[in-house]
Amino acid sequence: MNFDIFLFYLFATLALLSAFCTVTSKNPIHSVLFLVFVFFNTAGLLILLGVEFLAMLFLIVYVGAVAVLFLFVMMMLNVKISESTSAIYRYLPIGLFLSILFLFEIYLIVEGDLNSIDVVEFSKLDYSVLQNEFLVNTLWVDSVISPTNVDVIGSVLFTYYSYFFIMASFILLVAMIGAIALTLHRRSDVRRQDIYKQLQRDFEGSTYLVDKKF
Amino acid sequence: MTVFLIVLNVVLKSLALIVPLLVAVAYLTLLERKVMASMQQRRGPNIVGLFGLLQPLADGLKLLVKETILPSSANTVIFIMAPIVTFLLALLIWAVIPFGESMVLVDLNVGVLFVFAISSLGVYGIITAGWSSNSKYAFLGALRSAAQMVSYEVSIGLIIMCVLLCAGSLNLTEIVKAQKEIWYCVPLFPLFLMFFVSALAETNRAPFDLPEAEAELVSGYNTEYAAMGFALFFLGEYANMILMCSMVNIFFLGGWLPLFDVVPFNLIPGVIWFGLKTTGLLFVFVWVRAAFPRYRYDQLMRLGWKVFLPFSLGWVLFISGIFVGLDWLV
Do the chains contact at B128 and A53, CB–CB below 8 Å? Predict the structure, then answer.
């Protein structure tokens, strides 16, 4: 069997199995760890696709940051064992609705022409002059020029999709400010440390006579 | 037959990387004890072998033959998994580190991101160890450690971004080659210092060793571990130390490049240069441990979020501004 195919099935199976375990396992910590495993397998699938940049970002963002915070909160909350199985039926309708919606979206994407995305145009951009009908199938130019993942994604993201990029960053900014605004409440009676003041203190400034009777 | 040869090739290559690494870790512990001892005017280990040179092997043997204890209230599967994960991740990164010109196991195009991704996974070993031990000391140590590592990763990421902007590549070999004219520690000196301090914090070393503050937390997240479990954590931690020093070396001190590209210097092979620089940085790690008192936790967080983060963010803007303004972008 082709090794790539074998790897694909391995990663896909493990991802699905651990995704199932994420939903069903009783202990929330186990759930999070299974979720991490799902992310790992997905990163493996992305590497198989040849988009190693995205795979690494996936690991950094989801596993290295998001899931760690999940785990952190789960451990602090001390939720030992989750509620009984009857709760599953409560969440079933909305879960079903979301998954059907998601399936429909994937169907739409797969149905639509994938080639219409500009990425393909970009990869032909530089050397379209060199291509003739004999070279189309082998694409020797690819092995000569071969722009890396990062080049391609960067060139598309910061040109064609720059507005979306900026919009996404603004949404994140709003979320961040929102989180800060929710948790920020100033109390006047708290004594805070002023590092500059502390460092500026010297002997003369900090010793003085107090005129007070004991 | 060919499959067998391929497997043999991979196994031999990995062993050729892992065995020297483990020896390096063993002798790093000896170096630490000896250097600390001489800084505190003691002798350090000098009984086992000549000048105590066999001490690390004796320590390893002791840990190996001790009894493995599983706490009865621990979550056994995760408890056993945590040290293995830590050790595995510490070994995994070494696959992409270039020791010399084309002396690298896997020359990834996204090498820097790989290193960053895997080192950010190191938190998992620690946090799961702390939680699964079901002990207050271990849990508090793990929480401190995780918070600290996550905080300092942010500034490390931004500093790496500056280096990437200068080198114009995510490939570690390319980054070293880009420093042919001048090591990045000269034009990016503040970043070099910040990266070094962040590396100290990332590896939970003194003066940022709050996760295992002996006086408060016994020994932090690995309190409940005995024998090999503890040894794996120990090996992972020290392998990470060597790794962070290699990263400082690759990003700022020109990796395997000689000090000056003239005759007496460039006759020495690049691997020796790499080793010399990394060892020098490791010495500074130990030196810092002997010289500085431990930070308080709020000071640590303040340094990470209020000093390093804005400063490195500013440097990213500054460097990209210079590059765009002077049209230096590769």
Answer: no
